[in-house]
Amino acid sequence: MADSHGRRPSRRSSRAASGSACGWALPTALLCAYGFFCSVRPSEPFLTRYLLGHKNLSETQVFNEIYPVWTYSYLALLFPVFLATDYLRYKPVVLLQGLSLIVTWFMLLYAQGLWAFQFLEFFYGMGTATDIAYYSYIYSVVDINLYQQVTSYCRSATLVGYTVGSVSGQVLVSVAGWSLFSLNVVSLTSISIAFATAWFLPMPQKSLFFHHLSSQRLSCEMKVMDCKNGAAVQDHPDVQRAPGWEDETKVPLNGEGHSAEKQSTQKQKVDIAKVLKDLWQDFLQCYSSRTMLCWSVWWALSTCGYFQVINYAQGLWEMVLPSHSADIYNGAVEAASTLLGAVAVVVVGHIKTSWAKWGEVALALFSFLIAAAVYVMDTVRNIWVCYASYVIFRIIYMMLITIATFQIATNLSVERYALVFGVNTFIALALQTLLTVIVVDASGLGLDIFTQFMIYASYFAAISLVFLVSGICNIVGAYRRQEQAQSRSPESQ
Fold it and tell me: Are strands 232-234 and 223-225 parallel, antiparallel or unpaired?
């Protein structure tokens, strides 16, 4: 049977479509297992206490000299890791993440001295920089209509894993009386299991730029999204593509009329000379959408503030209620915030609403709630109020960042998600580095922890104001366009 163009359906395309529909479960399950075990780190809620009490480090060394190294190394490694993620096609970088975290926790067990722990923070920065591979891998192996679903699964796996780690850490410390050294051993074991699981992930067959030619051969078997308007189309030779999309039918696949030497030279140009040019063109195309730009700006701004709050929350709690004078429940608080956040992420993964219309107002409202939570955490010097505010802060952020993730992914082609993820994270880290240098670092202002959190609360309040104004303008403009369309329709009749 032939189609409307007189062509017979490809058996290979039919098999590929069937595999796409039925084969998403295995890579999703393996990636979720990796994310779960990689997040089961029962010692993490007590790391500040561990460094201060067991490694003979002062508060100034921990907060102003060691922790900032993570921010700087994360920023420095992000772009090289992004290129490596594309060139190696995701899976090897996922393995690198597991290996970096193994080194980090091994050093936590045996390292001594300021320089050693600054070096440790470098490896931890590498482990967090390679998150780009974890969160973009799945979009290269599943169909676009599953983006929202698999996003919620992968994020929930990491959140549930972190919950299990926090609960077990709190129980082992408060009930069983385990040492923090023993908790670090458990964390190292769990990360090693995750590292072993990652070896079984299927290898993606395409990537953004370095393997672009091979991905073009598969382009007729997958759906893509037009970056400008987000409309779903079938990638087909007759489809009119937006500027920046190459016509795959014109790519020479068999080398007819070309020598092997010429093909080699052409491939080298694609891999080296053309990469940065294509990167810039895709950057301009992807961010030409107002919806894409809106969610990306919020992602970058809010992630900057989120990193600062979670990095120094334990320091704030230590100032409000020193751990040497009372029992602390950091693990229970981290578990509660992560578990409730995981539930919120799963729920939001099934919510259907017009985010294009109401998204900016929702971001403004919830950003204001985040600002209020950070303000209360800073000004009410009660440990239980601090704990409750922190739980609210994390739930709201994790819910919104999940919405932002699949809103951005749905408005992109499958190959371009890593680019936007990397750019957004790079901007977030650049802003965080600026905040760290000015506010936290001993070479800057070196402000006390309470003043720092007042600045973070003001930062989220400013984000809320910006998106409130933008959201109101967007809604007013939408209603005006609707009224104009309605007024023109009777005239056309």
Answer: antiparallel
